[in-house]
Amino acid sequence: MKEMAAAAKTIAEMFDGKRAYDADGFKAAAETLKARTGPALIAEFPEGTLGAPSAARMEIGQARPEFEALARHIGRLADALAVKAGQAPAAITGDMRMGAMLPMDGGSLLGKRPGAVEADPAKLPAEHLLHLVLQDCSSCHSKFRRKQQ
Ligand code: HEC
């Protein structure tokens, strides 16, 4: 989780202009995200560890299919992002930005047709993929991660 978090933060800061963008750093962070999501994320919470050591794990045990679906979903997005990062240019270009390539009829990709994104995440701009990845982080945490404050 911590490496995944650091990688997501690195990419987010590059796109937000809080950190200097560099193509190699983007690639490395996207590869980390890819490596830590999907099957690796599922393996981090093995079945049968119900109850211990954290409350989170107990809930995962009870809703295993949903947990695994989320882990695989974020994995697919991270794969697509890693492909984009592998071809990333030396500077952030317009077509990497949120909103690039959205349909002219007002962004039906953003939510109303849930199937659209799943159909081909590779068609989305890098920044949009990043936002979808971050949404999956929150979806999973709001359901499975015990509040620690
Ligand atoms: C499929 C579910 C799932 C997804 C997706 C997910 N997390 Fe988590 N995350 C968890 C769970 C469960 C915990 C709590 C672990 C525990 O209490 O044992 C956690 C804990 C954390 C922590 C606390 C530190 C730690 O190691 O416990 C951080 C930071 C974190 N996640 C960041 C992220 C980021 C960033 C993303 C997206 C790139 C993400 N997570 C995606 C399930 C998920």
Automatic annotation (TrEMBL):
Q: Which Pfam family is one of those matched by this entry?
A: Cytochrom_C_2
GO biological process, alphabetically ordered:
electron transport chain
Gene Ontology MF term list: electron transfer activity; heme binding; iron ion binding
Recorded hits in InterPro entries, A to Z, give: Cyt_c/b562 (IPR010980), Cyt_c_II (IPR002321)
Q: What is this protein called?
A: Cytochrome c
